[in-house]
Each structure stands twice: as structure tokens, then as C-alpha cells.
Amino acid sequence: MASSATESVQGPLNGIRVLELGQLIAAPFATKILGEFGAEVIKVEAPNEGDPLRKWRKMHEGTSLWWYLQSRNKKSIAINLKSSDGLAVVKDLVRSADVVVENFRPGGLEKLGLGWDVLKELNPKLVMVRISGYGQTGPYRDRPGFGAIGESMGGIRFTTGSPDSPPARVGVSIGDTLASLHGVIGALMALLHVKTSGGAGQVIDVSLVESVFNVMESLVPEYDLLGEVRTRTGGALPGITPSNTYPTRDGGFVVIAGNSDPIFRRLMNAIGRPDLADDPSLRGNDGRSAVAGMLDGVIADWSRARTVDEALAALDAADVPAGRIYSVADIVADPHYNARDMILEAELPGGTKVKMPGIVPKMSGTPGSVRWQGPALGAHTDDVLSDLGRDAETIARLRREGAVQ
Q1: What residues are labeled active site?
Q2: Which residues of 58-97 are buried (b: 16+ CB within 10 A; e: fewer)?
Q3: What Pfam families does the entry give (predicted)?
Q4: Does residue 9 have a pLDDT over 90?
């Protein structure tokens, strides 16, 4: 098992300063990725309470385990944004930042005097990533937007779950995460424009709804041209056959993706149905999709007679893509995850050892690294203020007046 990398490792974003004005999931997940690849991430938190994520889900000695993961490599500075001195600190940070990432409701930063019109005057090269429910424009811009709403309006919930059940959600905050990834992509493209072309900074306007909608494949043209409304299909991949989840004798399930033409033939031969492998009407996906129910039934009859291990062994021997459905216990124990440093050993305050997810993607020349876990609230306030030129006396005054913590 690999251990967390040291601070000496340099990533591809070394020298890039990122200012995070966000909380919970969407903005912080984006800056987590940037920080893992070398960016200096300064996270602005409210004094006393900090990011609510510090208290979400499972806790260790009063702090969320999710927090330690989501905020690794970040510097925490506790600033009162309602204080004029606190705002002055943020503006100084903006002057030296390359990227600002925020997920206030549209207009929230403007009310604080930190809108784009102000920030671009302070730093014309600034890239500002703005993540919100519906985007910075449009008739819904002022509505509160959480990931659950983005998933619902973006189309993914309507297509998730069993046909005879209400729409289901994915078991993680997928809407927020998709928005985060789009924010990172936008930030990197804008940075490239600034750094290599000498271009001006710009706003990256990311909507949770649109981020989900962007991964919905051919949903729109199928509806517009064919009147097709894609809905819930359980474990199947609609219109791509066969690709589904099949039961096994020991009460488990295997996922089998036999949907390319040559793989389908190998699959049918592996399950003892050479007649279907050679059937001219099943040579293409369109023919197979027309009889998807029949093919799923044939495969399920075969899988029910075998354990998960027996089914996977037979399919692996036939070079058919298949796999078991992993729980977290399966993931942590899996040799492939461990061989690729996807399970890292971390240390929490007090010396407690804990396993944490590794870093994605893998880069051969400038890999990402974990330099420290999520910090205590305001742990870097003094260091950051000192870097901005505030002396010890000024920092003490700001703290007494409640501008910082």
C-alpha cells in the first residue's frame, strides 16, 4: 500500500494560486483536484464554524472524515466576509491569485462587494469559476440549486432505477461532482489561454443542471427526431445489447457487457449458445436490441446456474468484459486498486491511521500528491496574512476585531 506523498513533490500546477470561496461539495471538490496536482489552494472559511462539511456524515473526534479527504492539500484561512478588513484581505488574495472558485448563489458575492466587475479590476488575468444550480443567467438563476435538483432537472434521475419504481438517485453526490469536473476543465482551459496566449481572465459559468445534462448522451436527438423518451431500465444499458446485471446461484450479481459484435459472439459461445452467436439477425446491435429481453433471459438462465466466481472465470476465459459489483470492502481489499496507489495510508491529527482514496488521473511526469489532510479551521490564517504583508501586530488587531480567526 502506498503512503501519502511528501510536500516536496511538485505537480503540473505548481505555482498556480487558487482561492476557494465555497463550501460543501461542488467548489471544494474542484479545488481539491487542483490542489492534488500542485496548486496552492487557499480556502476561505467563516470564523468559528467553518465549512459545514466539517460536520457532515461520519466523524472522527468531532471532525468529518469526508472533510479530511475533500480538503487535503488546502490552506484554511478564517475570514469574516462581512468585515471591511476581512474583505480587504480577500481582495489582496485576489490580486495574487490565478483562479477563484466559488459556489455562492448568483448575486451572493456581488452583495459582499466581490462580484466579477470588482475582481477583474483587481486582477485582469484572473480566472473565476462560478458554480451554481442554474447558472449566472436565465429565469431560474436566483433559485436555490443543490446537486439533487441538478440531477433531477438534468435528466439523470428520470433514467435511473427500475422501470416499476420511482426515479432513484445515485448513492453519491454525482450532480455536484459533475459540476466540479466541468469547473476544473473550464479553469484549465482558461488558464491555458492566459498563460500561453497572453489572454485576459474570464468567468467560467458552471450550472449543476447543465453539467448533468451534458453527460446524457443522445437523449435530446432521440426525443426530437424519434419521439423517444428514455426512462428507467434497471441495470440495462438501453439500446446497447446485451449489457446488464445478471443474478447468480449464490445470491450475487455479475455485470456483463457483451454489446460489441465480436464480444457478443464470444459471449454466446461461452454460455453454450452457438446458435445465437451465428444468427445473422443478431450480428449488429440494432438486431440484438430488438430482442433484448430474450437475450437477457438467456444470459440470466446461464448465470443463475453458477456462482459469481464461476461465471466470472468462464467469461474471463472467453475474453468477455464482466465484473462483480464492488462494495467498499471489495475496493479496499482489491489488489488492482492497491497496485495503482488508489488506496493511500493517511494520518489524522493525533496519529490515527486511516485509508483514503488515491489520486486520479495518473500522470507519468508530474503526478499528483497528498501533502496533508484537511486542516483545522484557520490553521493557515497567520501564514497567509504574513505572506500578504500583515505584521504580527496587525494580525492580532484583525483577530481582536473579529475580521479573522
Answers
A1: 176
A2: eeeeebbbbbbbbbbbbbbbbbbbebebbbebbbbbbeeb
A3: CoA_transf_3
A4: no
